[in-house]
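job 3f2a | input accepted
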Amino acid sequence: MFDRFESGEQAVLVHVNFPTEIDREDLSELKLLVSSAGVDTLGVVTAARSTPSSRYFVGSGKAEEVAEHVKAVGANLVIFNHSLSPTQERNLEKLCQCRVLDRTGLILDIFAQRARTHEGKLQVELAQLRHLSTRLVRGWTHLERQKGGIGLRGPGETQLETDRRLIRGRIRNIMARLAKVQKQREQGRRARQRAEIPTVSLVGYTNAGKSTLFNRITESNVFAADQLFATLDPTLRKLELPDVGSIILADTVGFIRHLPHELVAAFKATLQETQEADLLLHVVDISDDRQADNMHQVTEVLSEIGADEVPQLLVCNKIDALDDGEARIDRDDLGMPIRVWLSARRGDGVELLAKALTDRLRPRMVNVSLRIPPSMGKLRGKLYALNSVTGEQTCDDGQLALQVRMSAVDWQRLCKQVATEYGDSLQGFVE
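job 3f2a | predicted structure (431 res):
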């Protein structure tokens, strides 16, 4: 029932130039998407219009040209670099005598090929069903007839209505299963929040190098390739940073301009990792001529999912593709890192990223000198368990003089424990 590519499919691409920026798409990006889907491109037809045609999206003359080009090169698929209405798809298929796919359907199919986990497959199926539910009429005019025959005559429900009802039921079933997955994710997030473990989420335009950077930092083997949407399923890894401790690093799906709304809705549980992160690593392919536009598109998607208020650290990746690329950290007037220049593929500047993460996530530290009696040996053990004792000395009167350095959060927690166990304030032992 779904549009699925088969190996060896050959397509004619159609790209329309519009004067307004909001309607404009990138032809080179379409070619990358088609290549990522495993389809061969036999030709490209371009056009220029001020507004789409209601019948064919392009003008009738250009539609005839597309049909002739399909016949001439022997293509079995036409892919538009734009979103088509169900009626436009049906009219184009009748004219070209082959399947017609729009940009949304192409991205959905790539996602279907990339899904590996149970959750990812459910999310893709949900997005496909929502997209398909508006297109059941395409090429299925025989479904408009009512059922007939012994045992099939009933309330007069048409086959088309039956299919729509079945799809609605399947959508409800998938959403219920995804709700369970979301609850599990929320439990994991709450556990990390209770343990006060910061979460850092990698975001960026598709093919910016997020997975390569993720693998470099965490020494993982997440699939990374020079193609669009190589990563679909989110991956979490724990890291240790000096003066910060444990952090969770999340690799997420890449964004793209005009990301289909069906995908944004279906991947809500996954994208929540980004929404509730403490810091976003916005990875940018600095060698891409469209980097400014790509960054704007990522910002728009972050705003759509409610993650635009999360602090960001810009990671300028692929400096190895620049003539004057140099690994460095750019800081603001207060000395806080705002940009890190690196090459995830070669590893240049990755240690600078760790330093920048430490500077951005390092909690406020407390440095104190404690003087405690020998009877409070349990407190001394807790301080060592927290790895916060930087120096120790035994005084003439038998008391212990401890030099302590810990995060303000750990200090406040320890103060409460001491007040409960010893009935005294820890501040009273500070020299």
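job 3f2a | The CA atoms of residues 394 and 412 lie 25 Å apart.
job 3f2a | closed
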